[in-house]
Amino acid sequence: MELTYSGSTEIYERHGLVDVQIEPYENAPIVKENPELWESFLQQPGAALVKATKKL
């Protein structure tokens, strides 16, 4: 699970994804609006925001 939010693209590439971009949580408008609310999530995220293309 740590690979999904560690910043590594290894797990995504292993499943055929290319041009992987991991979006920092801090860039999300909802986090910017209330960073104190999201502080514990940011310390131990349970998901990753990823943009990628599936290799054909």
Molecular structure report:
- The chain has helices at 2-5, 10-14, 29-33, 35-43, and strands spanning 17-22, 50-54.
- By secondary structure, it is α+β, with helices and mostly antiparallel strands.
- It has one domain.
- It has a two-stranded antiparallel ribbon with strand order 1-2.
- It is elongated and about 40 Å long.
- The mean pLDDT is 87.
Output mean pLDDT.
Answer: 87
Distance between the termini: 26 Å
Specify the structural class: alpha+beta
Rg result: 13 Å
How many DSSP helices? 4
Report the major sheet.
2 strands, antiparallel
Strand element count = 2
Model regions low in confidence, pLDDT < 50 over at least 5 residues = none
Strand order of the largest sheet: 1-2
Beta-strand portion reads 15-25%
Please estimate the helix content.
40-55%
The backbone outline, from C-alpha atoms, is: elongated
Q: Helix-strand pattern, N to C?
A: HHEHHE
Question: How many individual domains?
Answer: 1
